[in-house]
Amino acid sequence: MPSADVSRDRRGVPGWPMRAALALSSGIVWLARLGTGFGGRVSPTARRILVYRTGRLGDFIAVLPTLELVRRTWPDAHVTLLTTTSSQAVQRAAATHASAGGRGDEFPWLALVPRGLVDRTVTFDLSDVGDAVMAIRRALPPARYDAVILASFTGEGAPNKLRKLGFLRAAGIRGPMLGWEVRSDLRLGRARLHANGAWIHQVRAAADGVIGWQARRGHEVDDGALVLRVEGAAADRIPADVARWLDEGPVIALFPGGTFAHKRWPASRFVTLARHVSRERPGVRFLLVGSDFDAPQSAVLRAALGDDALDATGRLGLPELAAVLSRCTAFVGNDSGPCHIASAAGCPTVAIFSGIEFPGVWEPWNDRHRAVRHRTPCEGCGGATACPLGHARCVTELDVAVVLRAVRRALDDAQKPANDART
User: What angle (nearest 5°) sits at the alpha carbon of residue 81, between those of residues 219 and 226?
Assistant: First the structure.
C-alpha cells in the first residue's frame, strides 16, 4: 500500500514547458537509438532478450517484477540479465559468500531471482567503463537481440539514457530497444514533476518499456501484474541459533544500518522503539540484521536490549536473509536492500525513509508495508551520498511515536494472510 501521505500512482500532467522539454529529450534519445543499432520493432515472438539494469541491491530488487513481466510476455524467450556488481553491498555479500566456501564470482544476490525468470546472468563492475566493456564482450560475443530492454529509473534523463546506449553499443550489443523514452528528469524541476505525477514508483519505472509495448498492443498492465517476490530456498543454511530464536516465539527483525549516514534513523531511536514494543507486546524479541558494515549500529542495540535481542549482523548471506525474514513477525529498518528483501519475502515491513527522494517512489512494493518519514521543506533533494544541507533532519527528526504506530499496524498485518498482489 502507498505511504499515508501520498498516492503512489498519481497521473497528473506536467505543464507544457516541462512536457516540451521531456519530448525534446525523448526525441534526442530516439535519434541516438536509431544511430546506435537499437531501432526497430520488438516482435511478440522475440526469442533472444537482454535486460539491462544497473545500481545497488535495492535497485536490483526493484527490477524483479520487470523480469516476471518479461517472462510472462515472452514465455519461450532466452532471457539474459546484464547487471552491475559495483555496489558496496554486493561486494561485501560476494566476499562473505567466498569466505563461506563459495566462489567469489558467484554473487549470492542472484540467488534471490525466482527460478525460471532468467536463463543467463552476466555481471560487470562499472567502476572502470573500459574494463566493463571488455568483460561484457568476453562473456557475450557481439550479437543482435530480438529485444534490448532498459530497466530504467524514475528521474533518468536523456544524458544517462544516451550514456547507456553508447555503453551497450561499445559492448557489441544491438537490437530493437524498449525503455529508452524519457518520462522524467532529475534536472527538470524535480518538485514540480513530482507534484504533477511524473515521478512514478521505481518498480513501475523499471517495467516502463514493456508496459508501453503492451499498451501499444492494446493490453493494459496494472500494478497488480507487477509481482515482487524473491527466492527463499536457503532455509537449511540458517545458523542454528537464529533458527532456534525464530522457533521460540514472535520475532521482529531490526535493521539500524545502511550505507549512508544521512539515510539512517539514529540507533538510539531504535532502542527506544524496541523498549516500547517490548512493554506493549510481552514475549516479542528482536533479531538484528545487516552486513558487517552495519555492525556499529547493531552493537548499540545489542548492548541496550541484552537478552531480548539476537545479533545476526554479518552472519547471513542474502538468500539466507530472505529465508529468515520470511519467518519474522515483522521488520523495521532503514531504506536499504534488507528493507526491500523483507517486503518481497512477505514480511510485514516498516520502512524508515529519509527525505532525499519524494514519497511514492522507493517504498517497498508489496502491500504489507508501512513507509514512515518526516516531511521537510527540502524534501526531494536527491542527495545520494550526503545531506546537501548537512543536517539530515528528514530522518533524525522522525519521532519514535510515528514509527511505533506503524509497527503496531505491521504486527496487526502479521495476523492476516499475505497477499503478493498490489491493491
Answer: 35
- Residue 412 grid cell: 496487526
Q: 65 vs 58, 225, 226, 318, 365, CA distance in Å?
A: 13, 8, 5, 18, 10
Evaluated on CA atoms 261, 265, 268, 274, the torsion sign reads: negative
Residue 316 has a CB neighbour count (10 Å cut-off) of 25
Q: Compute φ and ψ for 6, nearest 5 degrees.
A: -155, 140
pLDDT of residue 1: 31
Average pLDDT over residues 191-219: 87
- Mean pLDDT of all residues in 359-366: 88
Contact 118, 151 (CB under 8 A): no
Give the relative orientation of helices 295-305 and 267-280 as an angle to the nearest 10 degrees. Answer: 40
pTM of the model: 0.85
| pLDDT tens readout for residues 339-356 | 999 999 989 999 999 988
DSSP annotation of 307:
G
pLDDT in tens, 290-335: 999 999 999 999 999 999 999 999 999 888 999 999 999 999 999 9
Strand ranges for 192-295 from DSSP E: 251-255, 285-288
Distances (CA, A) of 294 to 49, 254, 316, 334, 353: 37, 11, 13, 11, 17
Reference 184, options 367, 346, 21; nearest CA is 21
